[in-house]
Amino acid sequence: MNRKKQLTLALIGTLTLSATAAPAKPNIIVIMADDLGYGDLSCYGAATFKTPNIDKLAAEGLKFTSGYCSASTCTPTRYSLLTGAYAFRKPGTGIAPPNGHLVIDQDTLTLPDLMKKAGYQTGVVGKWHLGLGEKGKGPDWNGELKPGPREIGFDYHFLLPTTNDRVPQVYVTDSRVLDLDPADPLWVGRKKPSPDHPTGVSHRDTLKMDWSHGHNATIHNGISRIGFYTGGEKARFRDEDLSDKWVEKSNAFIEANKDKPFFLFYASHDIHVPRIPHERFQGVTPHGFRADSIVQFDWTVGKIMKTLDRLKLTENTLVILCSDNGPVMDDGYKDEALEKLGEHKAAGPFKGGKYSLYEGGTRTPFITSWKGHIPAGSSDKIVCTIDLAASLAGLTGTPVPETACGDSKNVLPALLGKADAKGRSSLIQQDNGGRGNFGYRSGNWKLTKHAKKSARNTVVSKTLTNTKVPEFQLYNLAKDPAETTNLIAEHPEEAKRLKQELQALIEAGHSR
Questions:
Q1: Other beta carbons within 10 Å of 306
Q2: Are 287 and 344 in contact (CB under 8 A)?
Q3: Distance (Å, whole) CA 82 – CA 406
Q4: Does residue 149 contact residue 427 with C-beta atoms inside 8 Å?
Q5: Which of 99, 163, 436, 471 has fewest C-beta within 10 Å?
Q6: Is 427-508 CATH 3.30.1120.10?
Q7: What angle do CA 474, 475, 477 make, to 5 degrees?
């Protein structure tokens, strides 16, 4: 089905999600942190540093204790957020490489498409990491970077094209690299462009942040990255300035659209590696640059909220704060995150973290705030970032075809803190590339399935050391949220039920 036809179906779709009795067109801002763990905010238990702006958001809104992202790595969670579909259903949605093509098909009905159909101006600011350009070609770094955000529903974009530990270190807006000098073309590749090209291996003594594993190719700003690039010197940014730029561009988008409904996806790079916060945030916590970057992220949230207050938009703006996956300490750089961890528990009470099927990999901070419309409090309802497509369509009264957003549930009553809200009854969790590794939560029961050839568990408190685990494990999250006791031998019938449900949902191709 071509994109024009599918978008037309959105208007006459056979399945219309019900709207709630609220203002029809509130502004919507989705703030997604990067690698932020459940215990990384003071409102979620962090005791050695404070996140006052996010704490205020939580105190005035709804703090979820069972809020999830759909995967324990970045690209698949972002794919699922925008498409309303589990990323494991589409091959090629693992962590996107520097020269990766756009992983969302142009004929896919997306969350920004739904917002546009509801009359919203749509924008994305921050980390993209969903690829650019056509399949088989990838990005044309010196020309138009199409297809990209515009082709899947965003009116405006100002982006870090991949992720900052991957090349290149440039901004993308208007489908082009910003400030690129045609006389100094940008080249991006997988192989060393020349024998004397400086890398983190050959010029390790010049680095201002050393690498621990994998991040040892092209050097920019004293930091070596994944992949190689040359040229584009005038277009390159300084790592320390990223968060300031995200605030500048997010606030500019809000200002430009203050008189019309807008949808903004603010995708922060904090606290992903390389963790190089601005100088004014370096050293503000006892845990090194990782926690310093959390405080910086909190500052960006505060700046956006102050803009809403100044423009008198707070009472007509729904703000949703989440993360793309759980925490990790050493993720390729020697930034002392592990050495200075101390008593801080980045994943809170949960086991695992980034790359993991355990709760620490996908259960993260999740906050909704809408002054005058969401009651302050805490919720134990199960909600997920994959549900935002159907839920926000429900909020705006926008119909969703049966063939679109196949795994997105309308959990709007739960997001708004309604007394009779139910949230999700079950949720599939995945790690990265859909290699047969899944977590499946149904009620308070949790089944993990590690494919026999990749039966591994990444432990957040170590570097990236893996441990062999059984193919199937069963946990009762109500009694054992830390997933310490495998109950599969004691409850074989429960395990059988969950295995059957998981397999049926995988084979069905959709769950909505």
A1: 13
A2: yes
A3: 12
A4: no
A5: 471
A6: yes
A7: 155
